[in-house]
Write a structure and sequence with these properties.
Layout: E1 22-25, E2 28-30, E3 50-56, E4 61-66, E5 81-83, E6 92-98, E7 105-110, E8 115-119, E9 125-133, H1 137-145, E10 175-178, E11 188-193, E12 202-206, E13 212-215, E14 223-232, E15 235-247, E16 251-252, E17 262-263, E18 280-283, H2 294-303, E19 308-311, E20 340-343, H3 354-371, E21 376-379, H4 386-398, H5 402-410, H6 425-435, H7 442-452, H8 457-467
Helix pairs in contact: 3-8, 4-5, 4-6, 4-7
Length: 469
């Protein structure tokens, strides 16, 4: 790690520190600092080591101490002493290496009571910008390269991209950060946020033997600021910082004990708007055929932010309620307390007739959740067919392009639930139900189809206002 030698004053008049402590501020020498007076912190952006240079007398003994007031707990070589070196002249000086967060202020105290204070300088290495595509290359390739002929539903291309050597394709790529080796560390702390002020930051702790930390479930098309720090006895020592730029056509969610989870956000509409991330999620069931782990439950609720669940499964033919198994109770959710659970069974996958009425009920529950600030997870068993048809409805109302409606349904192909193709009858029938409705555009047709089932213009406007940027 490159060390930058900063000398606050190269040629200082011989003087005794007994006359009073001196203050160094980026090379400016100020005198007469009163004991106990706080030193203003100077934020120094770039990294490196800070070397304090103090005029003093040969034989004086110095220790290093933190002055506090920094954003991070102050850290320095408090357990080391530095002997002054006699350079053979009146201007004797001591060099002490200080490692500190940017902006921290430190004191050098000698055994005669004199004090020197100077701004700390960050040793944190700046890794610059790291760009990561969060979607697996197979799914990314399918989404970016596939443009269907919307007049021909006799073929599908999703299976062509489902090539894997065993890795899960329905999970996002992570962002792996190297943890620099640090002798004596008690562990590592990784902090990241989507803003440089680190508001609403997320904190991850890693073992001292860990060589890297991988961050999952970021949002595509965002910048994230991060720091890597070492846990020391005296506090945190910043080691590394940087910025992550994320990309990806769609946002899958990593939860190892569940499948096919993805965010509706990121879809583009015909009028150039974008569906907001973090509002509506889809996927497969998290109980019965799956067993959601506590780690994944916390990830989905605390990090991803899911606050409500709408279950399309039948409570009698599929949930198979058992008195001794509360996880199967339709009044509970494997996502835990604090997550609103609603069972809105869709008995079949056909969206017309009674199926549309059930879709309208589910839509109104979803809208109510969103109006109350509850990001919602919707699912059936696989999150493929019933869920797929419902999402065609709500995406169609927003004006998502026909190509993307079908490709979004086909993304289930990359999950453990297997192939779902635009050639399947229920997807074609769902689209035909919309196209048989009046309207000059597909969006107008979807809206009129929904209104024929009882959804109002006001409800559509409310949903659009919440869901579109």
């Amino acid at each position: 790690m490159k060390k930058i030698l900063l000398i606050a004053a190269l040629l200082l008049p011989a003087m005794s520190l007994l006359a009073g402590p001196l203050v160094y501020k980026q090379g400016a020498l100020n005198t007469n600092l009163e004991k106990g007076e706080k030193v203003s912190l100077a934020a120094i952006a770039d990294g490196g080591c800070k070397y304090a240079v103090a005029p003093c007398r040969p034989g004086d003994l110095f220790t290093i101490d933190a002055n506090g007031g920094s954003q991070y707990p102050a850290w320095a070589f408090t357990d080391r002493e530095y002997r002054l070196l006699d350079k053979g002249g009146a201007q004797t000086r001591v060099q002490a290496e200080i490692k500190a967060p940017a902006g921290a202020a430190y004191l050098i105290t000698n055994d005669k009571g004199g004090r020197l204070s100077y701004p700390g300088r960050s040793l944190m290495k700046d890794n610059g910008l790291t760009e990561v595509c969060l979607l697996k290359p197979q799914a990314e390739g399918f989404w970016v390269n596939t443009q269907y002929n919307t007049n021909d539903y006799s073929y599908s291309l999703s299976a062509n991209y489902r090539v894997s050597d065993g890795e899960r394709l329905d999970q996002p790529e992570g962002v792996t950060l190297e943890l620099p080796r640090k002798n004596g560390t008690l562990g590592y702390v990784i902090e990241y946020a989507d803003n440089p002020a680190f508001a609403d930051k997320r904190v991850i702790e890693a073992d001292k033997k860990a060589g890297a930390c991988t961050i999952y479930n970021l949002i595509p098309g965002r910048y994230y600021w991060y720091t890597v720090s070492s846990k020391e006895k005296q506090g945190l020592l910043g080691l590394r910082k940087g910025i992550i730029k994320t990309a990806g056509a769609r946002r899958f969610i990593k939860a190892d004990s569940a499948d096919n989870i993805r965010d509706m956000g990121g879809l583009e509409t015909c009028d150039g708007r974008t569906v907001r991330y973090g509002q509506v999620y889809r996927g497969g069931e998290m109980n019965l055929s799956r067993a959601l782990t506590e780690e994944d439950r916390l990830e989905l609720t605390e990090n991803v932010g899911i606050r409500a669940e709408i279950d399309f499964r039948s409570p009698y033919t599929e949930l198979k309620l058992k008195d001794d198994d509360p996880s199967n109770d339709i009044n509970t959710t494997p996502l835990g307390e604090g997550v609103l659970y609603t069972n809105k069974p869709i008995l079949g996958i056909e969206p017309d007739g009674t199926g549309r009425d059930l879709h309208v009920e589910a839509f109104r529950q979803l809208l109510d959740n969103l109006k109350n600030g509850l990001p919602t997870y919707l699912h059936c068993v696989a999150g493929a067919d019933r869920t797929g048809c419902f999402f065609m409805l709500i995406e169609g109302i927003l004006g998502v392009k026909e190509n993307d409606l079908m490709k979004d349904a086909e993304l289930t192909t990359f999950s453990a639930w297997g192939g779902r193709h635009r050639t399947e009858g229920h997807f074609i029938k769902a689209l035909r139900c919309a196209k048989e409705s009046p309207g000059a555009t597909l969006k107008e047709q979807w809206i009129n189809y929904a209104k024929a089932g009882g959804i109002t213009d006001e409800e559509i406007d409310e949903f659009t206002a919440i869901m579109l940027d």
